[in-house]
């Protein structure tokens, strides 16, 4: 995902802002990292360039 | 698509919905209805095919989402291939409908929803059921989508929603109107067992 995507995402639990933490980049792509809810503290992983913003109770892979 | 088609398709693919007639119709309406400067979200993207067509045929910014992480991985792979071939890709986000997208983020939201009315005793319990089944009424996913999508639309934003006659065309449109949308037909195709319509919904408030 591109860093600019953060502007159109929100915490699915309360629509508050998310804070982006990056652990791996390739060029301008963010490959690994996480989003953290600035209000809820909930963590949402970014794996292989895909942020997983499912609410915690819907993560039944 | 019909149950028989589905049965045949389920033999080869059980986790991610693959493009079918409904996908082609939605892509056609989307490519016609999207402007270069638009930011577009495709909800329930599955393989990512419709999102890819819109990204390739317009200069719009395209985001694709699905609740199914397997679908998201397939869509991301498709986006990568497209970016390698044409220089234009799209973003992929695992999310439930529009819940993870900011207020007013999109000019256009596309959705080919799970719409088949399904016997409550028929419990496949897999991702393909989630991709196809709209519950007993066929509207179990469409209605929460219509409840929520207005929040994610920018002023003047519109929704392109695929509606099957199996789901009850007028019932879906009435529901959308009750949620404050004006509705008009974008494209329509008839098949032996259903008529598929892409409806353009525009916020009226």
From TrEMBL, chain A:
<protein>
    <recommendedName>
        <fullName>Trm112 family protein</fullName>
    </recommendedName>
</protein>
From TrEMBL, chain B:
<keyword id="KW-0489">Methyltransferase</keyword>
<protein>
    <submittedName>
        <fullName>Methyltransferase</fullName>
    </submittedName>
</protein>
<dbReference type="InterPro" id="IPR004557">
    <property type="entry name" value="PrmC-related"/>
</dbReference>
<dbReference type="InterPro" id="IPR029063">
    <property type="entry name" value="SAM-dependent_MTases_sf"/>
</dbReference>
<dbReference type="GO" id="GO:0003676">
    <property type="term" value="F:nucleic acid binding"/>
</dbReference>
<dbReference type="GO" id="GO:0008757">
    <property type="term" value="F:S-adenosylmethionine-dependent methyltransferase activity"/>
</dbReference>
<dbReference type="GO" id="GO:0032259">
    <property type="term" value="P:methylation"/>
</dbReference>
<dbReference type="InterPro" id="IPR002052">
    <property type="entry name" value="DNA_methylase_N6_adenine_CS"/>
</dbReference>
<keyword id="KW-0949">S-adenosyl-L-methionine</keyword>
<comment type="similarity">
    <text>Belongs to the eukaryotic/archaeal PrmC-related family.</text>
</comment>
<keyword id="KW-0808">Transferase</keyword>
<dbReference type="InterPro" id="IPR041698">
    <property type="entry name" value="Methyltransf_25"/>
</dbReference>
<dbReference type="GO" id="GO:0008276">
    <property type="term" value="F:protein methyltransferase activity"/>
</dbReference>
<feature type="domain" description="Methyltransferase">
    <location>
        <begin position="40"/>
        <end position="112"/>
    </location>
</feature>
<dbReference type="InterPro" id="IPR052190">
    <property type="entry name" value="Euk-Arch_PrmC-MTase"/>
</dbReference>
<dbReference type="Pfam" id="PF13649">
    <property type="entry name" value="Methyltransf_25"/>
</dbReference>
<dbReference type="GO" id="GO:0035657">
    <property type="term" value="C:eRF1 methyltransferase complex"/>
</dbReference>
